[in-house]
Amino acid sequence: MPRVVAATDKFRGTASAAEIALAVARAAAGAGWDCDQVPVSDGGEGFADVLGGRSRLVRAHDPLGRELEAEWRLLDDGRTAVVEMALVSGLQLIGGAEANDAVAADTTGTGELIAAAVKAGARRVLVGAGGSATTDGGLAAVGVLEPHSRLRGVELVVACDVLIPFVDAARLFAPQKGASPPQVELLARRLERLVQVYRARFGVDVSAIPGGGAAGGLAGGLAAIGAALVPGFDVVAEAVDLVDRIDGADLVVTGEGALDEQSFAGKAVGGVIGLAGELGVPALVVAGDLVGDRPEITAEVQILVERFGPARAMADPAGCVQEVVAGCLAARRG
Fold first, then answer.
1. Per-residue pLDDT averaged across 100-111, rounded?
2. Which residues of 205-233 are buried (b: 16+ CB within 10 A; e: fewer)?
3. Which end of the chain is more exposed for a tag (fewer CB within 10 A), N or C?
4. For residue range 5-31, what is the model confidence (pLDDT) as tens digits?
5. pLDDT tens digits, residue range 171-212?
6. Residue 230 · residue 189 · CB < 8 Å
7. CA-based end-to-end distance of the chain
8. In degrees rounded to 5, what are phi and psi of residue 289?
9. % of residues, the chain, pLDDT over 90
10. Is the pTM of this model over 0.85?
11. Phi and psi dihedrals of 178, rounded to 5?
12. Mean pLDDT across the chain, nearest whole number?
């Protein structure tokens, strides 16, 4: 029986990575294929769900300073914690760009979750840096973690979903977080000043670190106090043994809500396609919508909005994915 691997990311705002993977599995069952469901992430929303672990709840603060109950995870090894910054400092958490104060939003809550994990005995902390409401350069999180001596002996790893430089975080992503053009310039100047502050205080030039601009500069701020920055997809792929699960498959299905040029610059979809290509396994990309030009890749690409129209694609993405994949699998088997 042929085997398909469902290595899908979230469809932001409409379906989780697990829900999309399940839709692929249902299509596979109907077409007479086996399916290995492997939801993936690049460090953004869904990072904690993909990695799993036992949930721990603590009181923390959202990007606008309001108290909330926030979650971090402790993996089965008892020493690795997972902190998804989107769950405490995320844009969707506070209702999107319209509800955000792009200048005031900060990463206090992310620092609080990291501190709680370390206090609970975690010796390795994986921080998913994506989906943020913030452009504070991680300054608030760095402040919460003082004294930084508490991090001695703790491996802090930031899973980055973009590779942009520290200062570029303002101009590239702050508009998506509700910042007006004057506010973008203010935030950029603030990040430029933080480069100097971090260099003077910690001896680290965050402007020279690839990925330092992830999550509005949170990645760079944590790097200043000793964190390692790594591609988020690589963290997840290793944790779920993705290479071994793709190897020998007859097809890999991946996808996300909006396919654009960033999808192939550190994001999950590009990572899955890259692995499939290295292993000689054909790939199918199913995305909710396409932003910009159609990508020039070897994988087949299906866009739900083009196939079903915006209304149905947004209302029932899992059902649309199931229909598209069912047709693809039936054709391949026939």
1. 98
2. bbbebbbbbbbbbbbbbbbbbebebbbbb
3. C
4. 999 999 988 899 999 999 999 999 999
5. 999 999 999 999 999 999 999 999 999 999 999 999 999 999
6. no
7. 13
8. -145, 165
9. 88
10. yes
11. 100, 5
12. 94
Q: What is the pLDDT of residue 21?
A: 97
Residue 333: predicted pLDDT: 67
Owner of token pair 């200062």: 167
Instruction: Output the DSSP codes for 210-268.
Output: TTTTTTTTHHHHHHHTTPEEEEHHHHHHHHTTHHHHHTT-SEEEEEEEEE-GGGGTTSH
Contact 137, 170 (CB under 8 A): no
Task: Specify the residue for token string 């300073």.
Answer: 65
Other C-beta atoms lying within 10 Å of the C-beta of residue 312? 14
Whole-angstrom Cα distance, residue 238 to residue 41?
12
Q: Under a CB-based contact definition with an 8 Å cutoff, are residues 109 and 63 in contact?
A: yes
Beta strands across the sheet bearing 251-259: 34-37, 3-6, 251-259, 283-290, 300-303
- Catalogue the long-range contacts made by 307-313 (C-beta closer than 8 Å, 24 or more residues apart): 313/288, 313/289
Buried b / exposed e over 5-25, threshold 16 CB at 10 Å, is bbbbbbbbebbbbbbbbbbbb
CATH of 3-40+241-333, one of 3.40.190.100, 3.40.50.11690, 3.40.50.10350, 3.40.50.2000: 3.40.50.10350
Whether 298 and 195 have beta carbons less than 8 Å apart is answered as: no
**pLDDT at residue 261 greater than cutoff 90:** no
55 exposed, middle or buried (CB, 10 Å; 0-12, 13-18, 19+)?
A: exposed
Count Cβ atoms below 10 Å from residue 293 Cβ, excluding itself. Answer: 8
